[in-house]
Amino acid sequence: MEKFELTILGCGSALPTTRHFSTSQVLNVRDKLYMIDCGEGAQIQFRRSKLKFSRLNHVFISHLHGDHCFGLPGLISTMGMLGRTATLHIHAPSDFEQMLNQQLEFFCKGLTYKVEFHPIDTKTYGLIHEDKSVSVYSIPLHHRIACGGFLFKEKATLPHIKREMIDFYHIPLYEINRIKNGGEWTTPDGQLIPSHRLTYPADPPRSYAYCSDTVYLPHLEKYLKGTNLLFHEATFMHEDLSRAEETCHTTALQAATLAKASNTKQLCIGHFSARYENEKLLLEEARSIFPNTILAAENLTIPIK
Hints:
Blueprint: E1 4-10, E2 24-29, E3 32-38, H1 42-48, E4 56-60, H2 66-69, H3 72-81, E5 88-93, H4 96-107, E6 115-120, E7 126-130, E8 134-140, E9 148-154, E10 160-161, H5 163-168, H6 176-180, E11 185-186, E12 192-193, H7 195-198, E13 199-200, E14 207-211, H8 221-224, E15 229-233, H9 241-246, H10 252-261, E16 267-270, H11 280-287, E17 293-295, E18 301-303
Parallel strand pairs: 3-4, 4-5, 5-6, 14-15, 15-16, 16-17
Antiparallel strand pairs: 1-2, 1-18, 2-3, 7-8, 8-9, 9-14, 10-13, 11-12
Helix pairs in contact: 10-11
């Protein structure tokens, strides 16, 4: 099975603490890296997680609060000092473009590469990026400012070859890719061997959903149905529901309720309020509704199965 895994770079909320970095994650899809939010310290955590800057070509910013985007100018500058030449694509709410251009003009003159901006409509669900490995969709959220989540859907892979059948029919290696794509093999005596006899079915495509800062939105269930891994902010415990609603955030219990309703396979909660020194209480609250819940933690890598 090809690589499809999430690395947490930071999982704290707006108020800095010594326990957590600001929000940032990296999704690795077949060794292509997709950054999701870029709070302060993201590039330091990127190095600590032993990730390669050269494999990062897309950054997705959920909204324009500092704990989700203040790390981006520094990251862009560092990539320039490393001599990057490949275009870096920034996907973010449209209001970010003017601010980003000003930062690039002031702090990042003479870059060796192009930074290309792609505006996101945070009010609608829709495809915002597609390549050979993954399709990325925006998820409309509700926060104090325009905010969107992201759904990453892995592209289907080719079937697996049956090595014993390849050896039995003496099929040359250069024919394997054609057979994986559905081609037949003709034996020297004219017998046609169909592709399905020479291959195993491909692994089922996987998916990852990221729900950034938002009030509890039960209707997100329709977008998240059956995801392999859901990250949902759980800034507060449910006993602090009034504070969560006041600041447009979600409780751990609410995040777990959404995970259960959407039949996701695994839930990861993060974006922890600085008021909680014992985050296991948040985990216990979520697990009371959805047992397959884990806590986000810096440099934690989660294989998405």
